[in-house]
Specification:
Blueprint lengths: L2 H62 L10 H23 L2 H22 L5 H22 L1 H12 L4 H20 L8
Helix pairs in contact: 1-2, 1-4, 2-3, 3-4
Length: about 190
């Protein structure tokens, strides 16, 4: 073969390689905004769900301690129904963008919510349904943190700003969580009915 053929083949090969690399990076740059939007939606839905589920937990604790009553048409019953409807809607939207494990925990929470409501309407003891509801809420919360990578991102941030890392945050966290837990479980006990 002549030298011009070799030069033509080398030029053609380089053009194909450059085109392939360009195509790869072009596709990658187009997917990056989609990933960012997906992550943004995941954060939005998980945050909305946790906030509403926390409100429902507060109502459930009030029903258990009988500081609130679940009578047909009462304000408390209407608030419960409104929050339950919002949780249903968020769960359905989140099912499109969350991993299956996170979506499953949300549906498990909603099942526990229905069990609590059934026990409430039947005027049964609410201790076990409330524990199940609380456990399902914790599960959603922890799986949500995993999906969002909160621990990894937080760990990097803490290492940047503190030489002791998680240790100081763990002491603060345990104390704060203890106070929140005590406030939730003792709600209504210190106030006369």
């Amino acid at each position: 073969m002549e030298a011009t053929v070799w030069i033509s083949l080398a030029g053609l090969s380089a053009t194909v390689a450059a085109s392939g690399i360009g195509f790869y990076f072009s596709q990658k740059s187009q997917r990056s905004p989609l990933r960012q939007e997906l992550y943004k939606k995941q954060v939005e839905y998980l945050t909305e769900f946790v906030v509403l589920a926390t409100r429902l937990q507060m109502l459930a604790a009030g029903y258990k301690t009988e500081t609130m009553s679940f009578k047909n048409g009462s304000e408390a019953e209407q608030v419960w129904e409104s929050i339950a409807e919002q949780l249903r809607d968020i769960t359905q939207r989140a099912g499109l963008v969350l991993p299956a494990a996170a979506y499953s925990t949300m549906t498990a929470y909603r099942a526990a919510q229905h069990d609590f409501e059934d026990a409430l309407i039947a005027k049964k003891d609410l201790a076990q349904p409330l524990r199940t509801l609380t456990g399902a809420m914790s599960h959603v919360f922890m799986v949500g943190r995993e999906v969002l990578g909160a621990d990894n991102l937080s760990s990097e941030s803490i290492r940047l700003h503190s030489s002791k890392g998680y240790e100081n945050m763990n002491r603060i966290g345990a104390t704060a969580l203890g106070k929140v837990h005590e406030a939730l479980w003792n709600r209504g006990k210190t106030h006369p009915k």
